[in-house]
């Protein structure tokens, strides 16, 4: 019978990959914890309406990337394509936003029906951060400072550059949109097909078209910056001053608009040149209108999401995964013969008590000396502890280095932990 395979674009994360995932997750957890961010966990499925109302009907995500289905009651549900909408829904539903500030973060799988390729999958993982009740720009700056700290913690400083922009309030964007459309209409036949379509639906997205013909038309297009309202302009100037003061380098990219409807004022992306076309590892911005748009009170908000697969690809490409990040054994305990099984399990327990930071793997399943030593070698352990009838009778254990030519030694079982502590 044909074997059933995983769904295209949805990856298994195998045992030799999970250590680097854990390393990234724990580093992020630690850094966010330092800033007082609290974790929130939302369901993976929400009502379809939530995403339509927040992300926007004419965005790529809602138009063509969502996994939407009817459940058995006939309700339209969607696998979350991103975390912000669900986070706002949850925070609002449970009264977390009433008269208070919040700094929240989450991590988990997201789902988008895109063409799978390097750095782009149909199930991928984001680590997201959302701040509520703070108008900024101080908290906008904090978000960028903390991402910079995270890059340092992962050894990535200098490998990602920060681009920022202000896209103003929705009112100033409306005026700009009209000017942009009026200009682009004149050159409609020189635009690529996607951009022609977006002229009707989401003209701002044309600004980040990669099509050479469209790019040429765009060189003389009106720029958003000329249409910014005073408040957005002041907000952006202060943000830049705060980043300067904090020593976080950035460039202003006037074409950076982001694909989701809910953004306003500050938008930003961290981009690496080491991953080819899928170079954005973290993206976000301010979305002061979203909470109200979803039925809550007006609430200032800003956040970002980073793509965990891309971060890991980057760490691996640059060979920045520290050597200690693996799930290999430190010590492998063998048991030669039936009578050694119980004592070997007990020696292993003692070692786990005495060396809590070490990985102690017990051989299970019997077998010859040779086959047990082969497994010890394959476990990655640096030392094998050999327990046979003689050792058990003498209260000793054989201590055999596996990674160098040192000879095997006989050690009293009571001293095994202190001997190993010196070695591993
Ligand atoms: P892109 O321009 O690469 O499609 P996006 O603007 O759609 O990204 P966001 O919705 O801002 O992405 O998501 C934040 C981050 O999540 C991205 O910067 C990226 O690192 C990651 N991401 C988004 N879509 C995918 C995907 N299909 N596969 C892997 N990572 C993704
Ligand atoms: Mg996308």
TrEMBL record:
User: What is the predominant subcellular site recorded for this chain?
Assistant: cytoplasm
Q: Name one GO cellular component term.
A: cytoplasm
Taxonomic lineage of the native organism: Bacteria, Pseudomonadati, Pseudomonadota, Gammaproteobacteria, Pseudomonadales
What's the encoding gene here? hisS
Q: What is this protein called?
A: Histidine--tRNA ligase
Q: Does the keyword Protein biosynthesis apply?
A: yes
A Pfam family (short name) is HGTP_anticodon
The protein's matches in Gene3D superfamilies, at most eight in alphabetical order, are given as: Anticodon-binding domain, Bira Bifunctional Protein, Domain 2
What is any one GO biological process for this UniProt entry? histidyl-tRNA aminoacylation
Keyword presence, Nucleotide-binding? yes
Going by the UniProt record, its keywords in alphabetical order are: Aminoacyl-tRNA synthetase, ATP-binding, Cytoplasm, Ligase, Nucleotide-binding, Protein biosynthesis
Q: Which NCBIfam families does the annotation name?
A: hisS
Which residues of the sequence carry a binding annotation for L-histidine?
82-84, 112, 126, 130, 258, 262-263
Which PROSITE patterns does UniProt cross-reference here? AA_TRNA_LIGASE_II (PS50862)
* Summary of subunit composition and partner proteins: Homodimer.
EC number, as in UniProt: 6.1.1.21
InterPro entries under this entry? Answer: aa-tRNA-synth_II, aa-tRNA-synth_II/BPL/LPL, Anticodon-bd, Anticodon-bd_dom_sf, His-tRNA-ligase, HisRS-like_core, HisRS/HisZ, HisRS_anticodon
Give the Aminoacyl-transfer RNA synthetases class-II family profile domain ranges: 1-343
Matching entries from PANTHER family are given as:
HISTIDINE--TRNA LIGASE, MITOCHONDRIAL-RELATED, HISTIDYL-TRNA SYNTHETASE
Ranges where the record places region Disordered: 396-417
Q: Which GO terms describe its molecular function?
A: ATP binding; histidine-tRNA ligase activity
Q: Where in the cell is it found?
A: Cytoplasm
What reaction(s) does this enzyme catalyze? tRNA(His) + L-histidine + ATP = L-histidyl-tRNA(His) + AMP + diphosphate + H(+)
Source superkingdom:
Bacteria
By sequence similarity, the record places it as follows:
Belongs to the class-II aminoacyl-tRNA synthetase family.
């Amino acid at each position: 019978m044909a074997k059933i395979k995983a769904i295209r674009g949805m990856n298994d994360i195998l045992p030799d990959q999970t250590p680097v995932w854990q390393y990234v997750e724990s580093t992020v957890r630690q850094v966010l914890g330092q800033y007082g961010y609290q974790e929130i966990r939302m369901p993976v499925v929400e009502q379809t309406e939530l995403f339509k109302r927040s992300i926007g009907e004419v965005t790529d995500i809602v138009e063509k990337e969502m996994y939407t289905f009817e459940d058995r009651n006939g309700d339209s549900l969607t696998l979350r394509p991103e975390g912000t909408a669900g986070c706002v829904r949850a925070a609002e539903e449970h009264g977390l936003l009433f008269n208070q500030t919040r700094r929240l973060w989450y991590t988990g799988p997201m789902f988008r029906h895109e063409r799978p390729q390097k750095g782009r999958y149909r199930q991928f993982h984001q680590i997201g951060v959302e701040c509520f009740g703070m108008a900024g720009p101080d908290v906008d700056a904090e978000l960028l400072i903390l991402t910079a700290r995270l890059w340092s913690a992962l050894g990535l400083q200098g490998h990602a550059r920060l681009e920022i922009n202000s896209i103003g309030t929705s009112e100033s964007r409306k005026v700009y949109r009209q000017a942009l459309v009026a200009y682009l209409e004149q050159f409609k036949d020189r635009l690529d097909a996607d951009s022609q379509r977006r002229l009707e639906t989401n003209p701002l997205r044309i600004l980040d078209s990669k099509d050479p013909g469209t790019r040429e038309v765009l060189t003389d297009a009106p720029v958003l910056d000329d249409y910014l309202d005073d408040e957005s302009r002041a907000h952006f100037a202060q943000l830049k001053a705060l980043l300067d003061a904090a020593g976080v380098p950035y460039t202003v990219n006037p074409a950076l608009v982001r694909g989701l409807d809910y953004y306003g004022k500050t938008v930003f992306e961290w981009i690496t040149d080491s991953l080819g076309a899928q170079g954005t590892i973290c993206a976000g911005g301010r979305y002061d209108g979203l909470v109200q748009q979803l039925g809550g009170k007006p609430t200032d908000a800003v956040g970002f999401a980073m793509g965990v697969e891309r971060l890991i690809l980057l760490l691996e490409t640059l060979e920045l995964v520290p050597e200690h990040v693996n799930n290999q054994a430190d010590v492998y305990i063998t048991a030669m013969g039936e009578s050694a099984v119980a004592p070997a399990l007990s020696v292993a327990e003692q070692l786990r008590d005495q060396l809590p930071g070490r990985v102690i793997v017990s051989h299970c399943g019997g077998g010859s000396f040779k086959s047990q030593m082969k497994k010890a070698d394959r476990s990655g352990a640096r030392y094998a502890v050999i327990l046979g009838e003689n050792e058990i009778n003498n209260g000793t254990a054989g201590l055999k280095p596996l990674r160098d030519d040192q000879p095997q030694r006989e050690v009293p079982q009571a001293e095994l932990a202190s001997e190993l502590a010196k070695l591993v």
